[in-house]
Specification:
two-stranded antiparallel sheet, 10 strands, binds zinc ion, M28 family peptidase, signal, Peptidase_M28, alpha/beta, globular, Aminopeptidase
Length: about 350
């Protein structure tokens, strides 16, 4: 009799504990939401973003703005709003800023942003970035930039969809996430520089930038498999960030992480060549996911039919699980290097 009572007490204590775990949002396992990131959705969006209709998305062009409207429509469809403190999905950047370093007669352009507020530490913000501009039309040919950086553009949108779904089901991120589509990258990282000089959320509260630029193809170094991604910059400011990338990949995506271009002596200097650099230079830990260059890099052949959608999906899932960890972990990544 007594024994049974004890057992019953133990059992009821157990179930209370379980209930509490649900109430306090156990976000330890993202598995269910990794599956929200789907090859067919990425493909569908990329065929629009990198279509001739968008005219190569030259900074400030009609085509770029059209791509922006499409992207915003997707955010609306997925129930992801613009950030708190903004009046819409645009951060306007005047032409004067875009042409200040070198006058290229660029027109006014916009960064596009969307946002999911954190449930426990809303003031701490993770940025997930990708540039949505490309090089436009040359000699009557549309340069569609499917890999550069249509791939990163749709990856960020798809990640937002997964986080939004998690939030709807009571597993929203504990920290806030800013989904940031920057402009003017091809002309000198202008959009990310503008954001870093005019941040919507204080730089001190920005915990990390995850930047995605070209993740839909493979380079000649990896002719035999697309199951890899270059990881650049993660350990330059924060050992925690590097460890998070390695651990999440080991656990969920199992890509071959290639750190070759992370070597500060690498002559390509990719670390300084995409938008994460404008965060890193302000002391924000940053990681850049990249597939390397290929024959169609900045060429007219960078088309959506040449994208390897299985690789795009898996690399997006890696960025997602890293973002999930950073947004939900107890402590933000410590900056332990300079
Ligand atoms: Zn690019």
């Amino acid at each position: 009799m007594k024994k049974i009572v004890v057992l019953l007490l133990v059992a009821s204590a157990f179930s209370c504990k379980n209930m509490q775990a649900v109430a306090s949002k156990d976000n330890s396992d993202p598995t269910k939401y990794i599956k929200v990131i789907k090859e067919k959705d990425l493909k569908k969006m990329l065929y629009v973003v990198a279509s001739d209709e968008m005219e190569g998305r030259e900074t400030g062009s009609k085509g770029q703005k059209k791509a922006g409207v499409y992207m915003i429509d997707q955010y609306k469809k997925n129930g992801v709003s613009f950030p708190k403190g903004a009046t819409d999905y645009y951060q306007h950047i005047p032409a004067a800023y875009l042409n200040a370093k070198r006058n290229e007669n660029l027109q006014d352009s916009e960064n596009i942003w969307a946002y999911i507020e954190g449930s426990e530490k809303p003031d701490e913000v993770l940025v997930i970035s990708a540039h949505y501009d490309h090089v436009g039309i040359k000699n009557g040919e549309v340069y569609n930039g499917a890999d550069d950086d249509g791939s990163g553009t749709v990856a960020v949108m798809e990640m937002a969809k997964a986080f939004a779904k998690a939030k709807k089901q009571g597993h929203g991120p504990k920290r806030s996430i800013l989904f940031l589509h920057v402009t003017g990258e091809e002309h000198g990282l202008h959009g990310s520089r503008y954001y870093s000089e005019n941040p919507l959320f204080p730089i001190a509260n920005t915990i990390t930038d995850i930047n995605i630029d070209m993740i839909g193809r493979r380079d000649v170094e990896h002719a035999k498999t697309n199951n890899y991604v270059y990881v650049i910059g993660a350990d330059r400011l924060s050992t925690d960030l590097h460890n998070a990338v390695v651990a999440q990949n080991d656990k969920y995506t199992k890509l071959d992480l290639d750190f070759k271009f992370n070597d500060p002596k690498d002559p390509n200097h990719f670390y300084e060549r995409s938008d994460h650099y404008n965060f890193a230079k302000h002391g924000i830990p940053a990681v850049f996911f990249f597939n390397g260059v290929h024959e169609d890099y900045h060429g007219k052949g960078d088309e959506p039919q040449k994208i390897e959608y299985d690789a795009l999906t898996k690399r997006t899932q890696l960025a997602f699980v890293v973002a999930w960890d950073l947004a939900n972990r107890e402590n933000r990544p410590v900056v332990d290097k300079k």
